[in-house]
Amino acid sequence: MNAPVPKAVAAHAIAPRASGRPWTFYVLLTVFILYVIALYGPMICIYILSFQDVRGGLVFPMKGFSLHWFVDLFTQVRTGDVKGSFDRSVKLAVIVTIITVVVSFLAGLAFRRRFRGDGVVFYLMIGSLVAPGLVLSIGIGLLLNFVGFPAAWYSSAVGAQLSWTLPFGVLVMFAVMSRFDRAWEEAAYDLGASRWQIMRLVIIPILAPGLVAVALFGFTLSYDEFARTLQTAGSLNTLPLEIWSMTLNVTSPSLYALGTVTTIVSFVIIVVCLGTIGHLQRRRASRVPA
Amino acid sequence: MAARDDASGWLYISPLMLVLLPFFVAPILVIFADSFMQSDGFGGIIVNPTLQNYIDIFSSGLTLNLYYETIKFTLLTWLFSLIIGFWVAYFLVFHIRNPLLAIGLFLLCTVPFWTSNIIRMISWIPLLGKEGLINMALMKVGAIHEPLEFLLFSGFSVVVAYVHQLTIFMIVPIFNSMGRIDKRVVEAALDAGASRFDIMRYIILPLSKNGIALGTIFVVSIVMGDFFVIKVMSGGGSASVVGALYEDVGVLQYPTAAASAVVLTILVTLIVTAILRTVDVRKEITR
Fold first, then answer.
1. In the Cβ-directed half-sphere of B45, how many Cα atoms lie within 13 Å?
2. In chain B, whose CA is at the least distance from the CA of A104?
3. How does the average pLDDT of chain A come out, rounded?
4. Cα angle vertex A60, ends A244, A69, to 5°?
């Protein structure tokens, strides 16, 4: 396999094993770099602008440097109930995450083999994913009215958000399950393990990194969910609803400060989840006998 | 055995159904039923079946224009996110030789997906505004003398915000499909004298078709269901079908909103079904 690649071919190759890069590499590298700059650049701008002092405005240049707008965010009444909505959003996201992980895990197990009506369930799930969020939100709102159940962030909003996070969770489970070898499960069964033991000692440990990935989706999608929560959260706002009303009313850098705070929360979650996945995989790799 | 498989399958799937039935199927049915009712003007509903709500939609030039606008933004967003997403995925799969580096760069692209969409949208304001970074920079180098007005609160900024949010939905499935292409197929084609263009046309494009289809489903359904990006980023200059629907709900005209919701949902379903006919999405995901 180590035969030298003829020069003419190498210069042409899309993915040559060795030798220089074709010109397309540099074109696409430029495209990629521009994409990443466009992806992160604007976000970084508002993080920087949120650290202005009291004279700060919505655009560059930077006016001073302070934490004024962060203090403003959590103390001023006119920016709304940021603290309360932040609190509710995190609690709501935790509830949604736990349910998403458990339900997606079970659904992932179900979809491993075909059963009567599995196609219907699959397309219902896709439907729930692509349905316009506000349409579902209004539908759920009307339904609650009809049965006389009061909408609240800890009840109806949980269900509304699950209709969005669960399809994602199950799709991630599909990807995770496709790498799960049923022979492991059967081996445990042959060795006399009970169903519960197989679940606890074989399936869950092997799928653990995938379940953390499902949790990452569950938390972040719930924490940012807007349209489906709009008509189902009742009288108390979640954070995205609060941000939405701020974008319409507040024209000070407190809006950017809120952006910085909420992004920090998202990043903490992402780092914790990706770190956990990496840790679980390293631990597993170290256990495999050489 | 088959009967036992069915039973255990439904046992495991029942929690999912317990969410989908009350929070997806039932609301859609309620909306559908509501769309044939009349409003009493105070948020209540008069049970008197009528097609008037639908006739209003299709006879109003204003409403049809909303659909035209929504479809226009959907197509533009789809086109740009596809072009960018396709080449970014292609670059990561075929040009990055170190697989760990490819995964790392891929994660770099996906991280913003897990952060707030609203914040990512408003982050364009200090860049595109009249006194924004781009206008200031262009005036400084003397390219323009007056600030460009079309950059913010226009159709342009709406498309920018959409593409910024949604390109990731193209990158992930296309990256996934391309990652499965056997590199030896490409090399065999090269050895047989295929040009770069031939390889793209006969190998890469057909084999990443499923990823493109999946990405398209995401982008189309999200843009067609959106109302806040278009509201904030167009500065009120453009509206969308869902935006109008939200206004109707604001003035308690539930049946009108419901009819509009039904038409929109049917439209989205038709598009998604048409795409699903070209690829076996289930096989693509579970494989």
1. 22
2. B16
3. 85
4. 50
Contacts of B31 (CB under 8 A, 6+ apart): A135, A138, A139, A142, B258, B261, B262, B265
pLDDT of residue A79: 60
Per-residue CA distances from B150 to B130, B142, B147 (Å): 9, 18, 9
- B154 and B234 in contact (C-beta within 8 Å)? yes
Mutate to test the interface with B, among A17, A19, A39, A104 (most CBs of B within 10 A): A39
The answer to whether A156 and A140 are in contact (CB under 8 A) is yes
Interface test with A, best of B8, B25, B118 (most A CBs within 10 A): B118
Please compute the mean of the pLDDT values over residues B226-236 and round it to a whole number: 85
Q: CB of A39 within 8 A of CB of B111?
A: no
Rounded Cα distance, B35 and A200, in Å: 49
C-alpha of A264 from chain center: 14
Interface of A with B in 83-122 (CB under 8 A): 99, 102-104, 106-107, 109-111, 113-119, 121-122
CB contact under 8 A, B228 and A266: no
Contact A132 B13 (CB under 8 A): no
Of all residues in chain B, the one with the smallest CA distance to A37 is B109
Chain A positions in Cβ-Cβ contact with residue B117 (cut-off 8 Å)? 224, 226
Instruction: Name beta bridge partners: B46.
Output: B38
Q: How close, in Å, is residue A31 to chain B by CA atoms?
A: 7
User: Following DSSP, what letter does each residue of A87-138 receive, concatenated?
Assistant: HHHHHHHHHHHHHHHHHHHHHHHHTTS--TTHHHHHHHHHHHHHS-HHHHHH
pLDDT tens per residue across span B62-117 = 888 889 989 999 999 999 999 999 999 999 999 988 888 988 999 899 888 888 88
- The nearest alpha carbon in chain B to A156 belongs to B23
Residues β-bridged to residue B45: B39
Q: Do A136 and B24 touch (CB under 8 A)?
A: yes
Fold of B61-286: MetI-like fold (1.10.3720)
Peptide bond into A253 cis (omega under 30): no
Q: For A216, how many CA atoms within 13 A lie in the half-sphere containing its CB?
A: 25
Alpha helices in A178-253 (DSSP H): 182-190, 195-197, 204-224, 227-230, 239-249
Kindly state whether A45 is in contact with chain B, defined as any CB-CB distance less than 8 angstroms.
yes
CB contacts of B228 in chain A (<8 Å) are: 226-227, 244
At CA B187, angle to CA B186 and CA B193, rounded to 5?
95
Amino acid at A277: I
d(CA A228, CA B222) in angstroms, rounded, equals 13
Chain B: residue whose CA lies nearest to A161 = B23
Give whichever of A80-89, B216-225, B246-255 has the largest mean pLDDT: B216-225
Q: For B39-99, give the DSSP string.
A: E-SSS-EE----SHHHHHHHH-HHHHHHHHHHHHHHHHHHHHHHHHHHHHHHHHHHT---H
Domain locations in chain B? 61-286
For chain A, domain boundaries:
81-249
Q: Topology of A81-249 in CATH?
A: MetI-like fold (1.10.3720)
